[in-house]
């Protein structure tokens, strides 16, 4: 157990699957207190149980839709009813919808991507900032993506959203310098979670093809990076971290093993 995180209050958005769920289990192993949000409450309860069994001091869940301001405000009120401090906020909720070129892109996909990945981060941060400014050494950790650094075909809205997340992180870092609140972004490359299943709207075969022949990041790899960043001493801020699997040198440069070598 890393005593730096024992008993700390950790808020994780999008904790019902993927990176968020793995982070809940990983911070649980450190003995932290967890406040978990996402839309699928049943899945959240399962994750909270796993985190508690892993060693979390406390693990609580609340339904949250980061694309809706009233939902974010209600989530923040629920947090304030449980604690006067937030040590770490992990803005992880988000994802991609579709891989259409701009010419055939759909309004509803673009709107959802910008609502969750961009406005969700702004709303959640605004709602919890008072609790973080009053907590010495607190840390806002956003989940970006290599897509925020490098564009790819079919990714215009998602890449724009993650580039937006990166610039929000940078602006906040400047705004909060001197308050003691740290701000950083962890930007992963290809990782096997429900991300592609969501992007391709339940098409399991298309989602599986994304990872064919590569050894992608696991959700646990990203969770370990979050735990490492969050457990640095208060004078250290991990501003920006890009994390890719060895098989991915750039979004387009993926080493795929031939079937015989898998
Ligand atoms: P998952 O689809 O497994 O997890 C996404 C999480 O976000 C779920 O818990 C989902 O919960 C939650 N979520 C989505 N929309 C909302 C919403 N409106 N309000 C609240 N919660 C929401 O994918 P990942 O774990 O991979 O994705 C996590 C983050 O990592 C995302 O921001 C994604 O863009 C980013 N990312 C993913 C990469 C990858 O290759 N997997 C690489 C780089 C970044 P629910 O549906 O229950 O609301
Ligand atoms: C997810 C990684 O490369 O599919 O953010 O956009 S990628």
List descriptors.
alpha/beta, Rossmann fold, 42% helix, two-stranded parallel ribbon, 11 strands, 18% strand, binds NADPH dihydro-nicotinamide-adenine-dinucleotide phosphate, binds 2-hydroxyethylsulfonic acid, 262 residues
Topology:
Layout: E1 9-13, H1 18-29, E2 33-38, H2 41-54, E3 58-63, H3 69-80, E4 88-91, H4 107-133, E5 139-143, H5 156-176, E6 182-188, E7 191-192, H6 195-199, H7 204-210, E8 217-218, H8 219-230, E9 240-243, E10 248-250, E11 253-254
Parallel strand pairs: 1-2, 1-4, 2-3, 4-5, 5-6, 6-9, 7-8
Antiparallel strand pairs: 10-11
The structure holds NADPH dihydro-nicotinamide-adenine-dinucleotide phosphate and 2-hydroxyethylsulfonic acid.
Strand arrangement, major sheet? 3-2-1-4-5-6-9
Low-confidence stretches: none
- Tell me the fraction of residues in β-strands, as a range: 15-25%
What structural class do the secondary elements suggest? alpha/beta
Tally of domains: 1
Q: What is the CATH level 1 assignment?
A: Alpha Beta
What's the tally of helices? 8
**Overall 3D form:** globular
Q: Which hetero compounds are present in the coordinates?
A: NADPH dihydro-nicotinamide-adenine-dinucleotide phosphate, 2-hydroxyethylsulfonic acid
């Amino acid at each position: 157990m890393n005593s730096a995180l024992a008993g700390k209050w950790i808020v994780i958005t999008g904790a019902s699957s993927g990176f968020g769920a793995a982070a809940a289990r990983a911070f649980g192993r450190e003995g932290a207190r967890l406040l978990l949000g996402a839309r699928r409450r049943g899945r959240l309860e399962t994750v909270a149980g796993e985190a508690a069994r892993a060693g979390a001091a406390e693990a609580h869940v609340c339904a949250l839709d980061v694309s809706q301001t009233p939902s974010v405000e209600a989530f923040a009120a629920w947090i304030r009813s449980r604690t006067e401090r937030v040590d770490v906020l992990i803005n992880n909720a988000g994802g991609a919808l579709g891989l259409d070129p701009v010419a055939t892109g759909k309004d509803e996909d673009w709107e959802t991507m910008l609502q969750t990945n961009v406005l969700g981060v702004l709303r959640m941060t605004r709602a919890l900032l008072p609790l973080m400014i009053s907590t010495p050494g607190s840390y806002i950790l956003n989940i970006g993506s290599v897509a925020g650094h490098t564009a790819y075909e079919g990714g215009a809205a998602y890449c724009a959203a993650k580039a937006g997340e990166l610039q929000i992180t940078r602006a906040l870092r400047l705004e909060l310098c001197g308050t003691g609140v740290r701000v950083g972004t962890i930007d992963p490359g290809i990782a096997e979670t429900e991300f592609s299943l969501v992007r391709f709207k339940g098409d399991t075969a298309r989602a599986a093809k994304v990872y064919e022949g590569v050894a992608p990041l696991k959700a646990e790899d990203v969770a370990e990076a979050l735990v490492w960043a969050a457990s640095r001493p208060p004078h250290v801020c991990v501003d920006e971290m890009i994390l890719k699997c060895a098989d991915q040198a750039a979004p387009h440069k993926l080493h795929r093993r031939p079937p015989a070598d898998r």
